[in-house]
C-alpha cells in the first residue's frame, strides 16, 4: 500500500461513497463501499447481497443493544428494586418447581391406580369448593374418578410448567 505525505494545508477527500446508512433510535451506522477496480455485474450483485446481510446483522445487534440500554436502571434505588423483583421471581419459581414435583408424584400414583384398574377405589379425591376463601369453604363437587383426576392433574401440571417457563424468561431478562 502506498502512503503519501501531505504538505501543510493539503486536504484529503475520501474516494469512498456511502452505500447504506442505518438509523435506529438515536444511533446511526453508515456502511461504506471500498473503492475497487472494475467490477462485473455478478460481483456487484454479490456485494449487494453481502451488504444486505451485514445490514440485517447490524440491525439485529442494534435492537439487542437498545433493549439492554432501555432496561438499564438509572440510579441505585432502581437497581435495588430491580434485584428485589428478580429475587421475588426466583423465589416464586423455586416454590412452583417444588409444588410441581408434588403434583407429578400424585400423577404417578393416580396413573398406577388407573393401570391397576382400581377405578372405584377411593384413594384420590378432587374437591371443588366455594366460600369466602378465608376459613369456611363448602365442597360444591367431589370427584373420585381417577381418570378425571388424572386429566385435571395433567392440566394443572402443564399450567405450572408454563408459569415456570415464564418466570425463567423473566429471570434471564
Q: What is shown here, in short?
A:
Helix content is 57%, strand content 15%.
Question: What does this molecule look like?
Answer:
The protein is of the alpha+beta class and 173 residues long. The chain folds into 2 domains: 54 residues, no CATH class; 97 residues, Helix Hairpins. Helix content is 57%, strand content 15%. The chain has a two-stranded antiparallel sheet. Strands 3-4 form a two-stranded antiparallel sheet. The mean pLDDT is 77.
List the helices and strands and how they pair.
Layout: E1 18-24, E2 27-32, H1 41-71, H2 76-115, E3 126-131, E4 137-143, H3 146-172
Oligomer: single chain
Q: Which of globular, elongated, flat, extended, rod-shaped describes the shape?
A: elongated
* Beta-strand residue fraction: 15-25%
**What's the CATH class of the largest domain, please?**
Mainly Alpha
CATH arch. level architecture of the largest domain: Orthogonal Bundle
Largest sheet: 2 strands, antiparallel
For the secondary structure, the number of strands is 4
Number of domains: 2
Radius of gyration: 32 Å
User: Mean pLDDT, nearest integer?
Assistant: 77
Please write the string of helix (H) and strand (E) elements: EEHHEEH
- The main sheet orders its strands as 1-2
Helix content: 55-70%
As for the CATH topology of the largest domain, it is Helix Hairpins
Helical segment count: 3
Poorly predicted runs = none
> What separation lies between the terminal Cα atoms?
47 Å
Class derived from helix and strand content: alpha+beta
Amino acid at each position: 500500500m502506498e502512503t503519501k505525505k501531505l504538505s501543510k494545508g493539503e486536504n484529503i477527500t475520501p474516494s469512498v461513497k456511502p452505500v447504506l446508512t442505518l438509523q435506529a433510535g438515536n444511533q446511526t451506522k453508515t456502511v461504506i463501499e471500498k473503492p475497487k477496480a472494475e467490477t462485473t455485474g455478478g460481483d456487484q450483485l454479490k456485494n449487494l447481497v453481502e451488504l444486505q446481510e451485514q445490514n440485517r446483522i447490524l440491525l439485529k445487534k442494534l435492537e439487542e443493544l437498545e433493549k439492554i440500554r432501555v432496561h438499564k436502571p438509572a440510579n441505585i434505588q432502581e437497581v435495588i428494586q430491580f434485584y428485589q423483583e428478580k429475587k421475588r421471581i426466583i423465589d416464586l419459581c423455586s416454590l412452583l418447581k417444588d409444588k410441581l414435583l408434588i403434583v407429578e408424584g400424585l400423577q404417578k400414583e393416580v396413573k398406577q391406580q388407573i393401570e391397576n384398574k382400581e377405578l372405584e377405589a377411593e384413594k384420590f379425591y378432587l374437591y371443588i369448593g366455594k366460600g369466602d376463601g378465608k376459613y369456611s369453604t363448602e365442597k360444591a363437587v367431589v370427584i373420585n374418578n381417577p381418570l378425571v383426576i388424572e386429566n385435571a392433574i395433567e392440566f394443572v401440571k402443564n399450567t405450572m410448567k408454563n408459569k415456570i417457563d415464564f418466570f425463567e424468561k423473566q429471570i434471564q431478562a
